Write the structure tokens for this entry.
Amino acid sequence: MREISVTVNGRVRKRTIKDNELLLDFLRERLEVRSVKAACWRGECGLCTVMLDGHLVKSCLVLAVEADGHQVKTVEGITDDGELAPIQRAFVSHGASQCGFCTPAWVLATHELLQANPHPSDADLVEATSGLVCRCGTYNQIREAVAEVSESSRLRRQAKESLARV
Amino acid sequence: MSFGSPYTTLPDFEYHRPASLEEVLGLLKQYGDEAKLMGGGVGLIAFMKERLMSPAHVIDVKEVKELKLLSNVPGKGLSIGAAVTLSELLEGGVLKKDYAVLHEALAKIADPMIRRRATLVGNLCEAIPWVDSPPALIALDATVTVAGPDGRRSVPVSGFIRGPVDIDLGPSEIVTAVEIPQVKGAQSAFEKFTGGSEFSLASVAVMTSNGGRNRKARVVYGSVNSTPFRSVEVEEAIRDGITPGSIRKASDAASEKVECVDDVLATAVYRRHLLKVITTKVLRRMMSR
């Protein structure tokens, strides 16, 4: 047993854990962050995806002790003002979730993709989310949601540029 | 707690996070057979869940500075530390030009989240017949550097992999890096066929060089036998250049001369057919470059 300290969505969380505990269990069971889903347990479905030090990882393949002293972000932490992120609004308007089980992982992954690359191509989207599955098959709606956020940020940028010219 | 099922929990072990290579060697000397080294952990954690491995000690080498080194010396070659991740190798673009075969092999491994954790040395040391990095590394004539109680030694990757899940590494030793020589005028490429499964059913790694009069070709097949298989006959077929004629000869030789096994993933007959297809594909791609 040892005490670890992990910053989760900006808050320092300390817990005493066993060395063989997974980051997935630490987040879901000890901290009750229920958006992190436990499904395949073997790195295939991607529904336990979280950000570890700024990068997406599958938390069923990371030990909790490995996160000691590091930063974790889950979907709860993608905005800090309590408002929905643009991609979350787009998921709602496009019906990009059916049963909703995989939605937190998809929102987190597509949000991070759009942060890094505001106008991803279809190939970029497929590659970035190749480690995630949606068994309801909402891939088309997710693609439409990503396209909408990409398009609206293009329009906002163009509007800003034309305003700057007048 | 969701603990309980053998497939979701890990066996008990003590976790160590050494900060230097010296410390790693000290831990290995102390625990030896009872310890497993962990780089990204994506392999080890999966094996532990399946109870294929139950080490009493897990030594995480992620924070060891010496093992994080990635150095590219033009004209000489590349040195890739044991803690360097697949993402670091792919995103830096360091492999793209002179080591394309490795870039192409690594870019198709698993997915970006797994590549963010997985290391090249970890992938190599798994030595599972269907992992993709060994054929590419053997095509590039890479060697591994091993550190142990008696100092350092260097082993070619082809000899390092002794059999399926069997590598030339003692219980108190660690692979510190993979060294890849830069070959003048080298061209290389990788191709695999997975048939939609997570495992390769057949893969091929090719490296050719026309530096001066000394033409070289190395062709290595993966996933068709218990260890990577280098084919002298296929190499001979393309030694004088890649042309439509030599591609036909090479792909015929691949399906006739490469030893293939029957297993749960595919039959030997099917694998021989795949070898013909992927050999043609990879060589056509190299010809049109």
Notes: The interface with chain B takes residues 18-22, 25, 28-29, 38, 41-44, 46, 49, 55-58, 60-63, 65-66, 127-128, 130-131 of chain A (CB under 8 Å).
